[in-house]
Amino acid sequence: MWLTDTQKIGVGLSAFGFAMISLGVVLFFDAGLIAIGNILFLAGMSMIIGVQKTMFFFTRRDKLRGSFAFFAGFLLVLIKWSILGILIEAFGFLNLFGDFFPVVVNFLRHMPVIGRFLSLPGVSQVVDRLAGFQNQLPV
C-alpha cells in the first residue's frame, strides 16, 4: 500500500485522534480530550481522502443520518455534555462506517495472532454477528 506523504500524515492524525478520544473516555469523559480527538480525526480523514471527497462522504444521501448524529454528538461534546455527546457520536460513527466492518474483520483474520484469536469457535460466531456476516447455508 503506497501512500503519499499527506496521506501518511492523515493516518497519523486519525490514529492520534482515536487515541485522544479513547483517553478522554477513560479519564471520565473529559470533554477537552474528546473534542481534540474529534478535530484530529476529521483533519486526518480530510488528509487521507481529500477535502472534497470527505465533504461528499458526509453529505451522501444514505449517510445523512449518521453525519447528523456524528456532528450533533460533536457539538454536545463542545458544550461539555460529553457522555451524551460520545454516545450520539458512536451511533453516528456506526452509521457512517458500519459498511467497512466486514472488510476490517477479514483483514484482521489474516493477521498472525489476532487471526488465530478471531478463529476460535465462540469468538468467531460473535465477531461474525457483529460484523454483519450472514449465515450462508448450502443450497
TrEMBL record:
GO biological process, any: retrograde transport, endosome to Golgi
Record's bilayer topology term: Multi-pass membrane protein
Matching InterPro entries: Got1 (IPR045176), Vesicle_transpt_Got1/SFT2 (IPR007305)
An example Gene Ontology CC term for this record: Golgi cis cisterna
Source species, domain of life: Eukaryota
Subcellular location: Golgi apparatus membrane
Keyword Transmembrane helix: yes
Assigned keywords, A-Z: Golgi apparatus, Membrane, Transmembrane, Transmembrane helix
TM annotation in the entry: 9-29, 35-52, 64-84
Pfam families reported in the protein's UniProt record: Got1
Homology family: Belongs to the GOT1 family.
Annotated protein name in UniProt: Golgi Transport
Lineage, opening ranks: Eukaryota, Fungi, Fungi incertae sedis, Zoopagomycota, Kickxellomycotina
Gene (UniProt): GOT1
